[in-house]
Amino acid sequence: MPCSQHVLSFDPRANVVLRLFDPSGPAKGSVIVPSAMGVAQNFYARFAEWLAGQGYWVTTFDYRGIGLSAPASLRGFHINIVDWARQDCAAVIDFTQAQQPDLPLYWIGHSLGGQVIGLIPNRHHIDRVIAVAAGSGYWRENAWRTRRFVLWLWYVVAPLATALFGYFPGKRLRKVGDLPAGVMEQWRRWCLSPDYVGSEGDETRAAYASVRVPMLSLSFTDDEIVSAESVRLLHALYTSAPVEYRRISPAEIGARHIGHFGFFRSHFEQTLWPLVPRALA
Asked: What pLDDT, in 10s, does the model give residues 114-124?
């Protein structure tokens, strides 16, 4: 599908870079695909192309500090996850609506992309959410494969590496990816709290409780990070939103493995990806 690149101006050192995938045929709606923590928008390009082929305008983007939206150096670059939601995500919603004001707007959030909806000030413009592999990051509710080492990450690796480098050098450590210091510090704080993002306080919990957009939660039994309970804990914050849960095993679709990132890989084009247009119909 034809793809164009746009830049939303914030900080001269790092703006939000997004890509817009044009639909084939009459447009059915606009879709925003926000990324998981530390994942660049390129990861979602094949899925975005496919979804555009189903008749949707699709927008992917990099949060500031990630991928094409990263400055030359993350050292001293000040931003956190709340900024990503309140500024970056909000700006992408405004941009998408301005491009296609008469179309319904859908949000397909991978992991972090499904966690931050309650923090987005203009979330009321979203007509439906599909949260993919999105759960609370509270460490005690991580899937077992992650829980085995996550305290080492949160109490040793993350604070020491961030203090030493001025950002979290995830690429060097082969963990998550490079992250601005403020993002890693806030994420660490959330992951050590049973309330996760709710630990930001009463105002944040009230904001999540006010979300009323219908949601579909897609999660996977072999997810190495997100457990079934963490999915429930996250969506319990959305007390006013109707949530439909679907937890899928690899065997159910004839696959050996799906995991935390598998949904967006092209070999699931025939099995998992069609769930999206069906849910948006």
From this structure: 999 999 999 99
Domain regions of the chain by residue span? 3-137+202-280
**Angle of helix 158-165 versus helix 181-191 axis, rounded to 10:** 170
Q: Count of CB atoms within 10 A of residue 20's CB?
A: 22
Q: In 3D, which of 21, 26, 13, 11 has the Cα closest to residue 42?
A: 21
Residue holding tokens 């935390």? 260
Going by C-alpha positions, the residue among 53, 44, 42 that lies closest to residue 2 is: 53
Give the C-alpha separation, 281 to 197, whole Å.
31
Residue with tokens 């963990």: 175
pLDDT tens profile 60-113: 999 999 999 999 999 999 999 999 999 999 999 999 999 999 999 999 999 999
Q: How far apart are CA 187 and CA 184, in angstroms?
A: 5
- CATH architecture of the domain with range 3-137+202-280: 3-Layer(aba) Sandwich (3.40)
Is the pLDDT score of 12 beyond 90?
Answer: no
Which residue type sits at 271?
T
Task: Decide: residue 166, CB within 10 A, 0-12 exposed, 13-18 middle, 19+ buried.
Answer: middle
Share of the chain above pLDDT 70, in %: 100
Q: Is the CB of residue 226 less than 8 Å from the CB of residue 247?
A: no
Q: Where are the alpha helices (DSSP H) in 14-70?
A: 45-53
| Alpha-carbon Rg for the chain in angstroms | 18
Residue appearing with tokens 């000040």? 78
Q: Tokens at residue 200, please?
A: 């930001």
